[in-house]
């Protein structure tokens, strides 16, 4: 009797072991990698909240700086990278901010009028300038700058960039040689040399 009982128990135990061995435990999991697809988006520049700051220097003497308005623009992105865009600048809105432009001898209107002439930006003929963004690599934007109807490729350095579904904010610095765009006024005094570099800072706020 004991032999039969022990044999039966052995058979049952063997069957249980075989059954358990043929099943995968619930603790076994397969990890799957998920790729995050960068979202493409296009934002319209909020012209009321965006500006372009500019500055130019007369070596060893003084400099002028101010702001100018953006009339329209758009920025395209993929993820947090800018893939394209265009910013159109209204050259009729040049506004000096430096104290030297507000003296009794040289009011701001004198500087604005001079910057608007053929010595500088010839605003009557070319009322807008533009920067067309072609690509971004790291913190560098490559684009086509158009001033006085002349277009040349320039580089801008991004100093801040935030991209969210709600909008985009960005600042970028660009320095261009005025001689490349026929902004070629030369001061009549030899010791007052107008720098060839014109610096601009794009301050962009854009929304979907």
Verbal overview:
The protein is mainly β and 208 residues long. It has a single domain (40-207), classed as Lipid/polyisoprenoid-binding, YceI-like (Lipocalin). It is built from 2 helices and 10 strands. It has helices spanning 2-21, 108-115, and strands at 40-45, 51-58, 62-78, 81-90, 95-96, 128-137, 140-147, 150-164, 167-177, 197-207. Strands 1, 2, 3, 4, 5, 6, 7, 8, 9 and 10 form a 10-stranded antiparallel sheet that branches. The longest helix has 20 residues, at 2-21. It is elongated and about 60 Å long. The chain starts with a helix and ends with a strand. InterPro entries: Lipid/polyisoprenoid-bd_YceI (IPR007372), TTHA0802/YceI-like_sf (IPR036761). It holds the Pfam family YceI.
* CATH fold-level topology: Lipocalin
- Report the CATH superfamily: Lipid/polyisoprenoid-binding, YceI-like
Q: How much strand content do the residues show? A: over 45%
Based on secondary structure, the structural category is mainly beta
Low-confidence stretches: 23-34
Q: How much is the radius of gyration in Å? A: 33 Å
Summarize the main sheet.
10 strands, antiparallel
Order of helices and strands: HEEEEEHEEEEE
Query: What is the CATH-assigned architecture?
Result: Beta Barrel
Principal-axes shape call: elongated
SS summary, helix count: 2
CATH class: Mainly Beta
Rounded average pLDDT: 85
Helicity range: 10-25%
**Topology, number of strands:** 10
- Structurally, how many domains make up the residues? 1
Task: Report how far the terminal alpha carbons are from each other.
Answer: 86 Å
Protein name: YceI family protein
Domain Lipid/polyisoprenoid-binding YceI-like: 42-207
InterPro entries: Lipid/polyisoprenoid-bd_YceI, TTHA0802/YceI-like_sf
Organism: Reichenbachiella agarivorans
């Amino acid at each position: 009797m004991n032999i039969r009982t022990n044999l039966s128990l052995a058979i049952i135990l063997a069957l249980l072991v075989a059954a358990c061995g043929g099943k995968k435990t619930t603790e076994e999991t397969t990890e799957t990698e998920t790729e995050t697809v960068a979202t493409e988006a296009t934002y319209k520049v909020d012209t009321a909240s965006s500006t372009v700051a500019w500055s130019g220097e007369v070596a060893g003497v003084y400099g002028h700086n101010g702001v100018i308005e953006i009339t329209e623009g758009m920025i395209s992105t993929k993820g947090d990278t800018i893939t394209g865009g265009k910013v159109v600048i209204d050259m009729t809105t040049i506004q000096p901010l430096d104290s030297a432009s507000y003296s009794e001898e040289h009011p701001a209107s004198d500087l604005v009028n001079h910057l608007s002439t053929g010595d500088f930006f010839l605003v009557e003929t070319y009322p807008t300038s533009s920067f067309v963004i072609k690509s971004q690599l790291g913190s560098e934007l490559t684009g086509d700058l158009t001033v006085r109807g002349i277009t040349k490729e320039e580089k801008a350095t991004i100093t801040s960039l935030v991209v969210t579904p709600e909008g985009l904010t960005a600042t970028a610095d660009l320095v261009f040689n005025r001689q490349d765009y026929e902004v070629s006024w030369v001061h009549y005094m030899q010791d007052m040399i107008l720098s060839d570099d014109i610096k601009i800072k794009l301050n962009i706020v854009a929304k979907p």
